[in-house]
Design goal:
By secondary structure, the protein is of the alpha/beta class. It folds into 3 domains: 174 residues, Aconitase, domain 3; 97 residues, 3-Layer(aba) Sandwich (Rossmann fold), CATH 3.40.50; 106 residues, Aconitase, domain 3 (2-Layer Sandwich). 41% of the residues lie in helices and 13% in strands. The protein contains 15 helices and 14 strands. The strands form 4 sheets. The chain has a 5-stranded parallel β-sheet. Strands 8-7-6-9 form a 4-stranded parallel β-sheet. α2 packs across α6, α3 crosses α4 and α7 packs across α10. The longest helix is centred in the N-terminal third of the chain and has 16 residues. The radius of gyration is 21 Å and the shape is globular. It starts with a helix and ends with a helix.
Amino acid sequence: MQLTPEEQDMYDGKYGIAVEKSMEILVALGDIYGAEKMVDITSAQIAGVSYKTIGDAGLEYLEELASTGVKVRVPSTLNPAGIDLVKWKDLNFPADFADKQLKIIEAYSRMGISTTCTCTPYLVGNVPALGSHIAWSESSAVAYANSVLGARTNREGGPGALAAAICGKTAEYGYHLDKNRKANYIFELETQLKGTEYGALGYLVGRIVGDGVPYFKLKNTPLINELKSLGAALASSGAVALYHVENVTPEYNDALKGVDIGGIEKIVVDKDQIIESHQKLSTTTRKPDLICVGCPHASLDEIEAIADKVTGRKLSTPLWICTSISVKAESDRMGYTKTIEDAGGKVVSDTCMVVSPIEDLGFKVVGVDSAKAANYVPSMCGLDVIYDELENLIEK
């Protein structure tokens, strides 16, 4: 790799040991993937936050890094933690888990990283511009940033994203390059989609394309929240970091330019395939003993819609709506939180059902309207899931 004088100084340790180790990580990644140089980034989004996923070794690493006094060079946000950082006691999260989790957050805070823990940083001010280079690691956020916002990021690991945040740079390879942002599959839908069918489509396509770049021809125009659900499902069942939707996403016009259309696999998806994919996402038909929505984290308009559904009702099953602390503050101000709480639900901040220790809270079956959650909860939490529309879950 060709390093600038400043980058070489970082690599040689002239900015301190933490910067040196971070630049070594970035150069190693660049060498592995054949990058020729570094690019400046405008923001970072860092995974490796929940104590459930990084454990004591991760905590030790972060505390050691923070002890050097290093600060990140670009605006940086965190992925969801394993607990609601404010109301963890009310939600019955274990005290020993919470103690370790809070130490992780404190270490990140000492490095100048925002402790707004969310998988939807684009809803809390971390909104990269079209064409800008970033280093994000949460899979659904990567898919959203590349596809819906038109920013440029690879699917970074937690350490790689943290290293990029510390140096303000990342290696120029993968989705930072025009040539790798072209579509290599075309999916044409024969049916209109709504609600959880977007997640079912993403689950189906992700399993087909792996880390490919699908191009969708849809019968109807998806809303922003539906694009969020589609991308999250694509990223969880496969490793999709970029997708294009004809006449919708910002780079769809360029996605097929210079591409041999005859050499691209074209797949038609019908209603029966969507139904079959939808059914595969449930592991049981039993009644859920917890309903969790907000994976990725719920937006304010999604919370408003939930509040409308539960107004004046008394829920028979516990309901958690997972979101960021920032969106929850808006929900509080708008009165949506009170409406949901009056019905027996909770608006939960900073965490989600996948990275929290819900398996230790006595739950056995979780109802979700997220294909990503349906894909991960059985493997990461050891619990059964029911995948359905929220209104159907509430009625079960």
